Amino acid sequence: MADREQLIEQIVERCRQTHLDIERVADTINVSRGRGGGGARSNVDPLPFVEEWVDAPEEARRRAVAGYVSGIEHALLEPADSEADTWDFSESAGGLLMRLETESFRDGVEAATGSAPWTQPFHGDLVLVFLIELDMGMRVLDEPQFERWSVTPDRVVSGARSMLFHKANPADPSTLEDYEGVEHLRVGDGCDAARALVLDELFFGEIDDSSRVALPGSDDLLLVRSGDDASYEALEAAAQAYYDEADCPLTPSLFGFEKRKPVPVDDL
Fold it and tell me: 27, 34, 131, 243: which has the fewest C-beta neighbours closer than 10 Å?
């Protein structure tokens, strides 16, 4: 069990690891990235997050802190002089991406900006967050902007799916030498776990009832296209190893596919 000060220091250290500039001011944290109009800064009050997580088990805290700081980090990817908050759906759709995060990402964005991000549920405490690529930086789609768009959630998800597919097509996964039968898909845009939603298109005709996928971190997708017990065991081992080392850990659990959508294997 950590005390409150220890948990705040964990947040500060994680911010530093993501190359954010940090200054403690009493119980708040001044967080900044870059300088001038192209930079961004915020004064973050971590105490609501700390009160929620201070008594949680160590692994749960690690995962929650990673999501929280990821939210702060992504919020500060938008330059101070950006006007992307005024963009409508048509202006945003060409750069719309989605990323898989834990729910604590929402808390981080709201702490940094005062506005909650617009998210969609994935499974358990995992959510899809939506990002708009800018010429310089990135904007987190928030609830007020989504409401102004006057489009359906399905249309936003469809637009983000399309961008995830086109950025990864043709798919070129690597083979993990230490885990026989397991492939690793990493495009490098931070959205690879969310590509579980477009695997059927990326590997057309190759994803079936025996396929399995693991989403250990936001930046990684591990895949067995056509599996058996041995390859499933290798995937489980790889998923745990990648989860333990992930910057933004999600889950070591495996997913299968039902109607082209990833589903926890326990629900199949």
Answer: 27
